[in-house]
Amino acid sequence: MRYTIAVILLFTFCFNLKAQDPRFAQFYASPDQLNPALNVVYEGQARFIINYRDQWASVLNDVPFRTMAAHLDYRFNVAQNDYFAVGINGLRDEAGSSNFTQNNGNLNVSYMKYLGGGRSKSYYLVAGAQGGFGQRKIDLGNLWFSEQFDDATTSIDFTSPTGEAVNTQGNLYPDFSAGLMWYTIIRDNSFYIGGAMYHINSPNVSLYENQIDPLLRRYVVHLGGELQMNGNLSLLPAAAVYLQGPSTDINIGANVRYSSGDNDLAMRIGAWAHLSNQLENSMSIEAVTVTTLLEMETWMLGISYDINVSLLTAASNSKGAFEASFTYIIPERGRRSRVSCPKF
């Protein structure tokens, strides 16, 4: 009985949040999903990132929620300590038995302006924007509707009309987002704070004919930094707050980073709390995420797992989501192209 109730709660929760964007627990490793300004904030000439998330496999078996993203950008030195970057990114999100799918692709631009400083400190302001197109689709083959219920046989006739005027594939819609970030580097420490607005134009994403279903704007505020504890050990605390319509999500926690003397090899481990207003109630902890990341010269591999601590614990057996991220950076060409950036 508890299992059945938990499954019902799971689907109720999912449908209540149908307008909410997918998110990554490793938000610090998915810059275009956190803030378009972050596309230029890294130590390198070019960067490639891929993200993968698999959630609710313990309940939904072979149709879990899956989110995949890819990101590529290239940075130019346009003036002393000022930088400009261009890039592309894409995201695909699949959810449940209906195979409800969201596809998005964007072009992005960002600019980093040096505000001043001195020998031991520097200040930067960064702005970014992205624009592109999205599309949604759904597969009705695994779903049934009340119109398909046959009273005579008390069974479902999947060949009969559904009675729903829904398109299995929506139209392409334009989508625009923008963000700002300020950060400072003080010796070996850093601090940053930023904000972004996604879906500025609130595009219509309805799958129904002659209906309007605006994609709600998503507001993001994030902050964090790096605190040196000794020559090889540092703490990277961070927080991200997402507001989208009635939904509020908060990720907060920290990674501890240990590096070798030459900084070519480093390891991070951390713990993060994910809070949300589940089922329109007050804020509560939905999951605790444990992370480990390996840095090796030009690349970084991150693995994390969400331990479910919400009302869905009975159905999921505390199993939440598996997530992986991979970042590859092409180093700068010459000292002139080098920039001081916070670690995320």
The helix content, as a percent range, equals under 10%
Q: How many domains, as an integer?
A: 1
Helix and strand sequence: HHEHEEEEEEEEEEEEEEHE
State the name of the first-level CATH class.
Answer: Mainly Beta
How large is the count of helical segments? 4
Strand content: over 45%
Distance between the termini: 44 Å
Structural class: mainly beta
**The CATH topology, please?**
Porin
Strand order of the largest sheet: 1-2-3-4-5-8-9-10-11-12-13-14-15-16
- On the 0-100 scale, what is the average pLDDT? 85
For the secondary structure, the number of strands is 16
Over all CA atoms, what is the radius of gyration?
22 Å
The fourth-level CATH homologous superfamily is monomeric porin ompg
How would you describe the shape?
Answer: globular
Characterise this structure.
The protein has 344 residues and is mostly beta strands. The protein has a single domain (2-137, 171-337), classed as monomeric porin ompg (Porin). The chain is built from four helices and 16 strands. It has helices at 2-16, 31-34, 57-60, 313-316; strands at 46-55, 65-79, 82-95, 100-117, 121-137, 149-150, 155-156, 173-186, 189-198, 218-228, 233-244, 247-259, 265-276, 284-296, 299-308, 319-330. A 14-stranded antiparallel barrel has the order 1-2-3-4-5-8-9-10-11-12-13-14-15-16. β4 (100-117) and β5 form a beta hairpin. The longest helix is centred in the N-terminal third of the chain and has 15 residues, at 2-16. It is globular, with a radius of gyration of 22 Å. Residues 1-18 have low confidence and may be disordered.
